[in-house]
Amino acid sequence: MKFFTDTADVDAxxxxxxxxxxxxxxxxPSLVKKSxxxxxxxxxEICSFIDGPVSAEVLATEADTMIAEGRKLAEIAPNIAVKVxxxxxxxxxxxxxxxxxxxxxxxxxxxxxxALLAAKAGASFISPFIGRLDxxxxxxxxxxxxxxQIYDNYGFETEILAASIRTVNHAKEAxxxxxxVMTAPPAVIKAMAAHPLTDKGLDAFLSDASAAGLKIL
Length: 217
Ligand code: E4P
Description:
Layout: E1 2-6, H1 10-18, E2 24-26, H2 29-35, H3 39-47, E3 54-57, H4 63-74, E4 80-85, H5 88-99, E5 103-109, H6 112-120, E6 125-128, H7 130-135, H8 140-154, E7 159-162, H9 168-177, E8 181-184, H10 186-191, H11 196-212
Parallel strand pairs: 1-2, 1-8, 2-3, 3-4, 4-5, 5-6, 6-7, 7-8
Helix pairs in contact: 4-5, 6-8, 8-9
Bound molecules: erythose-4-phosphate.
């Protein structure tokens, strides 16, 4: 499973990248707003040290303008994945931009039939939003499972990018189902390393090492 991190915070991306945990980055207008940076400038900086796909989202809602924005975003670096919303205009933009050889991430997916349309439009990634479905009392993980089955039934190459991951358990479930990628905030990815028995075991080892006067360096 590839790990993308869902943030436009450059320092947080660098910190995770140093741990070898960043295969790509996803941003959206809300995350860019949170960073307080200009969208082009911050995307360029992320692409200066991340080799994997970096999703940057268009701001227009009409296909022709989305296509123009997508082309401008794609000029930033060859690893840009242009993010378009799952609307009919977004699908049209996806078809054109993917036909030109750009990676396209179709975002704001909340149903399996939407995901089927994105695959047919040539999307590189489909982003089903797990957490936002859970927020409405709908089991978001079932959507990942349905899309996995549909894509496998027909051999679609669009990668399932499990998005709106809010918990470590979301990450585990998405991996069990076989999502190709997950994107999660840095805090969730770091929380995946935590276990109370790891802390307890380490405390015991350190205390025994100290009691025995063990030294390596
Ligand atoms: C993914 O591409 C989205 O930016 C993101 O995962 C949305 O997450 P949220 O529902 O926590 O805002």
